[in-house]
Amino acid sequence: MFDYILFDLDGTLTDPKEGITKSAQYALKAFDIEETNLDKLEPFIGPPLKDSFMEFYGFSIEQTQKAVEKYRERFVEKGIFENEIYPGIDRMLKNLHVRGKKLLIASSKPTELVEQILEHFGIREYFDYVVGSNMDGSRSKKEEVVAEALRQLGLEPRTKESAAMVGDRKFDVEGARAFGLTAIGVSFGYAQGNELEQAGADYIVDTVEALELLLCGEGSMKTE
Fold it and tell me: Catalytic: 8?
């Protein structure tokens, strides 16, 4: 069904909860904000980091810059590998790669950190392109990331109907819809409530197995 498949990373291919939430906790502590319940920090998984500090804690631009620095201080040292690949993802990527699909990463996480994670889990070889944000915080909106991924692919508008974006948050769906891509949501990630349905996902799947079937053109989970 799809010749080009863009994947989000966090919450879609891997479960990064421990590393992200503990790093957010560490950053907040620098502002004397004690958050002992890591579940409350799950909303940090998905959106651009700077947006999360500003939206969830009302930080100013200056505070946000410091918070991001503190977050990365811990994340680069420990948090990046406090992460687990979802069971079945390796097999799915290998199968798609063998079938000749062009696979890309489109993540709001900085590209160099994404590269490290993919290498760590031994799945970098399956991706033709890896597109993330820049370390200075630019190109962190999912629409910007998707735009750059399509630019690198050299996709013409008429071919986008054969391209899909797979992700676990509304930001991934919005990024897909902004460019006419098929939006596939995975419910096993960190979507809040019915955000995938409300964002207008074309398909929503509950398991890695169902996702693989859909991407291979062997399954249909279209939303109403």
Answer: yes
Q: Where are the beta strands (DSSP E) in the chain?
A: 4-7, 14-15, 84-85, 102-110, 129-133, 163-167, 182-186, 203-205
Residue pLDDT, tens place only, 138-190? 998 999 999 999 999 998 776 778 999 999 999 999 999 999 999 999 999 99
Residues paired with residue 6 on neighbouring β-strands, in sequence order = 104, 165
Residues composing the chain: 224
Residues in contact with 170: Cβ distance below 8 Å, sequence separation at least 6, in sequence order: 191, 195, 196, 198, 199
52 residue type, one letter? S
Task: Give me the catalytic one of 3, 8, 32, 172.
Answer: 8
CA distance 186 to 184: 7
Chain center to CA of 3: 20
Distance CA 13, CA 205 (A): 13
Rounded to 10°, the helix 142-153/170-177 angle is 50
Quick one: CA dihedral 50, 143, 169, 212, positive or negative?
negative
- Looking at the whole model, is its pTM more than 0.90? yes
SS3 state of residue 197? helix
